Amino acid sequence: MWDLASGQLIRTLEGHSSWVKAVAISPDGKIAVSGFYSTAVRGSPEPLKLWDLDSGQLIRTLEGHSDQITAVAISANGKTAVSGSLDTTLKVLDLASGQFIHTLEGHSLVITAVAISSDGKTVVSGSLDQTLKLWDLDSGQLICTPEGHSSGVNAVAIHPDGKTAVSGSLDTTLKVWDLASGQLIRTLEGHSGGVSAVAINPDDKTAVSASYDRTLRAWALYADSEISTFIGESGMTTCAISPDGRVIVAGEASGQLHILRLEGI
């Protein structure tokens, strides 16, 4: 855990036996859910871990997937988490009880990304099978399967208004989707390498993407245009935007963590 203002390390949460692939923090900042991944132990059931961020203590370990965890998201009300796995399924978790509610099945390859709409009604998942899937969170039923990417989907984010989603793919593009119909709205092109992560600014107008081409790019969602670019030393692996929309945190393969002003990249 890091202090964004000072860049200082606050706390290290220890408990996983290999590198952490997925982390989500509750909206109130009190708990986190993490999942671990290791290429050395493929096919091994691995648990989610639930953490108290004030104390840094492990609250519980949650077992349910038959393989390792690759993605996790927490709902806006902080009551539900959704995890994705190498086992090609998603699982819906009640955070208060630690019980799994639904198993979402339909993807044919590894789940790489998951997001929950702000109203808590819809889940969007991305997979190396080149598709996204939209799910009803309450029932666990599949709504539709948007297709359009020519390679695996690596990242997905849902717009704050819950009407659109943005996906990033190994095909180097980002795509903007209408969640009501599952139809493609537009394609954003500019990266020369696969897109590894995407985040949407709370201002509703911009998105940020990270890519293995060493760049972090900011986009005007409704103008089909790139706003600015930051170039790192190695492939960019992740990105996130602060709740006030002013700060981007991005990680790269070299191990560096960048804290950037959105207007300055």
Task: Write up this protein.
The protein has 265 residues and is mostly beta strands. The protein folds into 2 domains: 1-105, 7 Propeller (Methylamine Dehydrogenase, Chain H), CATH 2.130.10; 111-265, YVTN repeat-like/Quinoprotein amine dehydrogenase (Methylamine Dehydrogenase, Chain H, 7 Propeller). The chain has no helices and 23 strands. It has a 4-stranded antiparallel beta sheet, with no helix packed on it. Strands 5-6-7-8 form a 4-stranded antiparallel beta sheet, with no helix packed on it. A 4-stranded antiparallel beta sheet has the order 9-10-11-12, with no helix packed on it. Strand 6 and strand 7 (90-94) form a beta hairpin. It starts with 19 loop residues before the first strand and ends with a strand.
Layout: helices, strands, pairs:
Blueprint: E1 20-25, E2 31-36, E3 48-52, E4 57-62, E5 69-74, E6 80-85, E7 90-94, E8 99-104, E9 111-116, E10 122-127, E11 132-136, E12 142-144, E13 153-158, E14 164-169, E15 174-178, E16 184-188, E17 195-200, E18 206-211, E19 215-220, E20 225-231, E21 236-241, E22 247-252, E23 257-261
Antiparallel strand pairs: 1-2, 2-3, 3-4, 5-6, 6-7, 7-8, 9-10, 10-11, 11-12, 13-14, 14-15, 15-16, 17-18, 18-19, 19-20, 21-22, 22-23
Please outline what is shown here.
The chain has 265 residues and is an all-beta fold. The protein contains no helices and 23 strands.
